[in-house]
Write a structure and sequence with these properties.
With 80 residues, this protein is mostly helical. It is 76% helix and 0% strand. The protein has one domain. It is elongated.
Length: 80
Amino acid sequence: MSERWSFQIRKGIFFAILLVVANKFLINNGKSFKEEIATISFWLTFSLLLLFSIFIFGYLLWKQKQNGRELSWSDIFRKK
């Protein structure tokens, strides 16, 4: 596996877990975390957040690491 993909996957997993935990605390529907894990909607949400985190957050952080500076919106959406 290339360095880029391993970096993106590591950062993506971290952000997906962070988003799931934040989602659980911000949108508390009365279920405990143990009950929430048993539902299919939890795993669907986690899967979608994981894919989003790997491809979006991971890519943006990789570009930031590659450039050695902070990214701006114009760097992300710049036309070549």
